[in-house]
Amino acid sequence: MKHSDPVTLAGIRADLAGGTPLARIYGELRRRIAERGDDGVWIWQPGMEDLLASLPDDPALPLYGIPFAVKDNIDVAGWPTTAACPEFSYVAEKDAESVARLRAAGAVPIGKTNMDQFATGLVGVRSPYGIPRCVADDAYISGGSSSGSAVAVAAGLCAFSLGTDTAGSGRVPAAFNGLAGLKPSIGRISTAGVVPACKSLDCVSIFAWTAAEAAEVLQYAGGPEPAGRPGFPDRLRIGVPCPEQLEFFGDQAYARLFEEAVQKAGQLGAEIVEFDYQPFADTARLLYAGPWVAERAAAVGDFITGDHPGLDPTVAGIIRGAGKWSAQDAFEAGYRLEELRQAASAEWEKMDLLLLPTVPTHYTVAEVLSDPLALNTRLGTYTNFVNLLNLCAAAVPAGIVPGTPRPFGVTFMAPAGHDSALAAVAGQFADGQPFQPPLPPDAVHLAVVGAHLSGEPLHHQLTSRQARKVSTTRTAAGYRLFSLPNTAPPKPGLVRTPGFTGPGLEVEVYALTPAAFGSFTAEVPPPMGIGTVKLADGTTVKGFLCEPFALEGARDITAHGGWKAWRASLRQAEG
Q1: Which one, of 167, 182, 83, lies nearest residue 122 by Cα?
Q2: What is the C-alpha to C-alpha distance for residues 377 and 398, in angstroms, rounded to an integer?
Q3: pLDDT digits (tens, 9 = 90+) for 229-255
Q4: Phi/psi class of residue 323: alpha, beta or left (left: φ > 0; alpha: ψ in -120 to 50)?
């Protein structure tokens, strides 16, 4: 890990494969945190000794050693939970389910992050613990309510973070800090152990550098994706609002960047269709101009009625105002929401997913402090409806505001249950890769470990067969890797060794049609063969295995964690 590197899952794994101790990695993170000083990002961090004592023992775990931050309305056992209000603080008796799942996969929480108090706000300025700033320009807001969680990732202080998202809190800060923000379908990640905002709508969300890494974290933080959901068609229909329904509050730069994003989506192979945004906009207005505010009072209203010095006055005013809504108002709003759901369903007949600006504009901290309610409301223009309609959403970067370092972002949305497929589409867009059709149900998954990896000499044998990369991952622990002598091009041999416990070896997994897989295996020369390889997450795929006789004179390179890391170490030694 270099001084200014972003921290990613792939980067941490490469460091570990190269022999960097976890203690050194965590020491570098603490150095970075200290160097930033009082930046408003953290509410609580464990001591270094306690942190190192919590590191997992099993290097075969899929998220082994990956450091992550936790929004301070999500419980971590033995740590205080404040929801950004000092008087509300309590010490959690056990981990929130999302944290427990991530720990079981080997990830390590490194601290609790700042937030808009009681997750009420999209601005990131409503906290007595300070104001996290946009990493690109500290005059501007970071966005909220998951402000500290986003900045912690964007500033290179952890590999991913957990936020929450009720009205956009997992997407707005992603847009303002150049990150991917994944808001799963309601219920995909349990909210057990989360201080509620609106309990019926709350989601645990994920910030990461890429949509692919956020999607990987989702596999471990949440339950399985619902089976039987129809996938996206071969050619995506991406819906965008009619131009007259778009609102940027005078921000012409954001308006142009969104136009460019729509053009890019078309160039990547999508069919762009216009839809009527009105039912979605009307739904968005229900969230704060309706009785759902009373659900915030149901969560923390008894506490809010007290006289606590640490209460943010804007947050307290919003939640205390919930008393004006009656039971009749709640029923009538429910009826209205059902009408809007029906109207939105008619628009979904035109499209497979929709594309919107994540936010319409970006404000300075000073602007928000001088007008906290109106400007906050504007930031929810394209986010507030999502959970009311139970959509999943993936926010990704989509350009830089000309003449500034500040990022612009867009969000892809789809009906509930399409989390992984949506993240894949958003990732393809962010990477400028053509949208790819869904994998056929009979696709064969193949793990490659050496000369067929991307950038290696035999990779063309996959690309010529239209193989599609599915993931970069690791084998289970019981495999060793050898550099074979006298092979051209240079090749490794992967050998299963029962009883051996190693770091797991980096592999790339590709999907091929059965016919393409058959023709590929016909080209595999001895001593290689295609067998079944177990991956770190417990699943099995087809993969290269080496016959034992070929290991005579071979060098065991298992400790490097993969072929690319081994080759990089050779280049470093040479020069």
Answers
A1: 167
A2: 23
A3: 667 888 999 999 999 999 999 999 999
A4: alpha
Residue 54 designated active-site: no
Label residues 163-177 b or e (16+ Cβ within 10 Å = b): bbbbbbbbbbbbbbb
Q: Which residue of the set 98, 145, 149, 205 is catalytic?
A: 145
Going by C-beta distance under 8 Å and a sequence separation of 6 or more, which residues neighbour residue 204? 74, 96, 98, 162, 163, 164, 165, 184, 189, 190, 191, 194, 221, 222
Q: For the chain, what is the mean pLDDT?
A: 93
- Catalytic residue from among 98, 142, 146, 169: 169
CB count in 10 Å sphere of residue 565: 21
In the predicted model, is pLDDT for residue 280 greater than 70? Answer: yes
Residue 552 is predicted with a pLDDT of 92
Q: Measure the CA–CA gap between 236 and 467, rounded to whole angstroms.
A: 20
Q: Give yes or no: 147 in active site.
A: no
User: What percentage of the chain carries pLDDT values higher than 70?
Assistant: 98
Catalytic entry in 71, 112, 183, 534? 71
Does the pTM surpass 0.90? The reply is no
Q: Is residue 169 among the annotated active site residues?
A: yes
Give the pLDDT confidence score for residue 232 in this predicted structure. Answer: 87
Domains of the chain and CATH, by start: 9-431 (3.90.1300.10), 444-574 (3.10.490.10)
